[in-house]
Amino acid sequence: MGLLRFSLAGVLLAAAVVKALAGRSGRDALESWGLADARLRAAAWGATIFAEAGLAAAVAADVPGAPLAAAGLLAGFALAHVVAILRGRAGAPCGCFGSRSRIGWASAARNAALAAAFAALPFLPDATPSTHAWLAVGLGVALLGVAALAVALLALARELGELRLQVAPQAALSLAHEGPELGGRVALIERFERRAPIALAVFTSPACQLCQALEPSLRLVANDPDVELELFDEEDDAEAWEALAVPGSPYGVVLARDGEVLAKGTFNSLFQLETLLASTLESVRA
Questions:
Q1: Please, which pLDDT band fits residue 173 given cuts at 50, 70 and 90?
Q2: Which residues contact 140 (CB under 8 A, 6 or more apart)?
Q3: pLDDT value at position 195?
Q4: Cα(45)–Cα(250) distance, integer angstroms
Q5: Segment 120-135 mean pLDDT
Q6: Fold exhibited by the domain 187-285
Q7: Residues contacting 44, CB < 8 A, separation 6+
Q8: Residue 270 burial (CB count, 10 A)
Q9: Tell me, what's the pLDDT at 109?
Q10: Beta bridge partners of 5
Q11: How many other CB atoms are found less than 10 A from the CB of residue 3?
Q12: 101/56 Cα distance (integer angstroms)
């Protein structure tokens, strides 16, 4: 009976693991069950994973009532499959074992068979386990818990990765009332050798940790033959800060050879700094 209990618990845990690893595709598959709202699908997806993983651990630990609870859950799944088939949804994704699982009589029969196995589990004869057997059970439960936590962390990492891909990077922040006027000419260009088509003035502060973190990015930009980079410290170049009305650091101002302000803005990353240079570099390299 112990082997059967652990086997059935493993099936439930495997279902939870596959659902978690499926991520967004697994959640979208729940639309076949009539869950049109994305937040509702996400809630149902998370609740199902939690229920299956929790019942798997409880069954493995021989918690009283856990096999019958698992049987009830799987019987509900089987009934839901039958109803969906009768409504003409056969062949649609079901999200049972990932996004590739389909609604059909086979999946309904599988859930029904598992429900029957869990329901019969408490009535099977069982010998009193030895101390070594209890240790093995404890070790198995611990391993199941570790596996469940690992799956949860992997699923969370995947969700964060998908979220980052969906969030588009922002351009540098350029406000009309901050910094020099676009199209105007500034005397700051005299601080440059004007050996490149574009001059980039970057305003930094001694206490600015972000400025320090961006130093490798600034060195990368300085290697561009079309850009001449100069740094202006808030303390050492206070006059330049005041003349251009720089709002804070890090702040960039792109100048033409004659001192015309081509672009300006606050930046927090290399991508944002490159947005200041993008349009002007394209015209220079054309």
A1: confident
A2: 6, 60
A3: 87
A4: 43
A5: 67
A6: Glutaredoxin (3.40.30)
A7: 30, 33, 35
A8: 14
A9: 86
A10: none
A11: 7
A12: 20
Q: Cis before residue 180, ω within 30 degrees of 0? A: no
Query: Per-domain residue ranges for the chain?
Result: 2-166, 187-285
**Nearest Cα to 273, choosing from 257, 252, 256?**
252
DSSP for the chain reads: -HHHHHHHHHHHHHHHHHHHHHTHHHHHHGGGGT--SHHHHHHHHHHHHHHHHHHHHHHHTT-TTHHHHHHHHHHHHHHHHHHHHHTT-TTSB--TTSTT-B-SHHHHHHHHHHHHHHHHGGGS--PPP-HHHHHHHHHHHHHHHHHHHHHHHHHHHHHHHHHHHHSPPPPPB--TTSSSPTT-B-GGGGGS---SSEEEEEEE-TT-HHHHHTHHHHHHHHT-TTEEEEEEETTTTHHHHHHHT--SSSEEEEE-TT-BEEEEEE-SSHHHHHHHHHHHHHHHH-
User: Residue 170's pLDDT is what?
Assistant: 64
> What are the tokens at 63?
């918690």
pTM: 0.44
The answer to whether residues 212 and 164 touch, using CB atoms and an 8 Å cutoff, is no
